[in-house]
Design a protein that fits this description.
Layout lengths: L2 E7 L4 E6 L5 H10 L2 E8 L5 E5 L14 E2 L3 E6 L10 E6 L3 E2 L1 E2 L2 E2 L3 E5 L5 H14 L2 E9 L4
Antiparallel strand pairs: 1-2, 1-12, 2-11, 3-4, 3-12, 4-7, 5-8, 6-7, 6-11, 9-10
Length: 149
């Protein structure tokens, strides 16, 4: 079954992202186990046009086809890879612009596991800018059946 993630924001707006198990099958499996999520979403300026939220995977997520270069619409999983499994921070992030993933230590390798369709990019930019300018907000993430399933 082809599945999508639906992101619904407290102050309005929603969009979907297509899960990409061909890129990161174990990451997709871990994300599905976490759902549904009700989280606080933040804006990050370390990696540019990015909104993100803390996550806690039910089982260790391995490195899968990692990159430090992301594109508009990419949905990624990141953790402190150098920490033992189950320790350290984990996050999910959505990009509304092409960026290099980084923090104060330098480049950050990430697993890309979903993609927001190009037709929805103006919406994710609008929501990303709103969170950057107005601050945090609540977000609900759930799995839905894909439109092309």
């Amino acid at each position: 079954m082809i599945a999508d993630l639906e992101f619904h924001f407290q102050r309005g707006g929603s969009f979907t992202a297509r899960l990409r198990p061909e890129l990161a099958p174990r990451t997709v499996e871990a994300i599905r186990e976490m759902l549904p999520l009700e989280v606080t979403v933040y804006h990050s300026r370390w990696s540019g046009r990015e909104i993100n939220f803390k996550a806690r995977s039910p089982s260790p997520v391995p490195r899968e086809r990692q990159t430090s270069t992301v594109n508009t619409g990419d949905v990624i999983y990141w953790r402190e890879w150098e920490m033992p499994d189950g320790e350290g921070q984990e996050a999910i992030a959505l990009y509304y612009g092409a960026e290099v993933t980084r923090d104060h230590r330098g480049y950050l390798p990430v697993n890309v596991f979903a993609q927001v369709p190009q037709a929805q990019w103006p919406r994710i930019e609008e929501i990303g800018l709103r969170i950057w300018q107005q601050g945090i907000e609540r977000l609900t993430v759930r799995e839905i059946e894909g439109k092309n399933a």
